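Q: Structure tokens for this one, please.
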Amino acid sequence: MGVAEVSENGATTVNAAVQSSAEPLSAAPATSPNGIEHTLANGRVAVHDPAIVEENGVYYLFGTHRRCARSTDMVHWERFDNNLSRDPYALLGDIWQAWPKQDSNPDLLGNTWAPDVIWNETMGKWCMYLSVNGDQFRSVIVLLTADHVDGDWTYVGPVVYSGFDESNLWNTDVPKVLELEPKNRWHRRI
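A: Here is the predicted structure, written as tokens:
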């Protein structure tokens, strides 16, 4: 039976027994450059900061550190993989290098947090908003889209940047959004 646990710091973890399937899913760990493995224990689904959606009677759970699971009864869960869980560097490597990565926080694998997944009727796609976190509040929320909620995701772009100041503002798309000119960096163009 599934159990939701809230730790002292307020983090939510959902743990549930994994339902057996005819074709077992890969439990191969994603290993970061510094050797940290982010695996799920056999027979368990552990998800922090869960977001859950339903499509055609199947519930899909997405969480921090690229955890994904599905269930038809919200008690028995089965892990599944997609390109975000298999190879986050291929999907998020460019934005990671361009903004949140820093010497004090060099590894993408431990820094994908709190996805939110919705069906966007206008786009006709599933949308995932995902926080890619760096050090000193230097993070970015990105938009990913997918045709199928349990399929592979496509990187669309940044939605919100944080942690910028005058020294690094021009590494974001904020000047373009605010129509800032380089010579008058902190004043809006009239």
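A few notes: The longest helix spans residues 88-98. The mean pLDDT is 77.
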